[in-house]
């Protein structure tokens, strides 16, 4: 679970990727998925 969340966060926070080049809808969907994974029960 942590690996998936980490990958999502890296995709959102990586400075090499300009945020303006990504569609806001896809960005919001990725952020929501990261939150869902983060809040998922561990185990």
UniProtKB/TrEMBL annotation:
Instruction: Give the organism, scientific name.
Output: Bifidobacterium biavatii DSM 23969
Indicate what this protein is called per its UniProt record: Uncharacterized protein
Superkingdom of this entry's organism? Bacteria
For region Disordered, the annotated ranges are 1-28
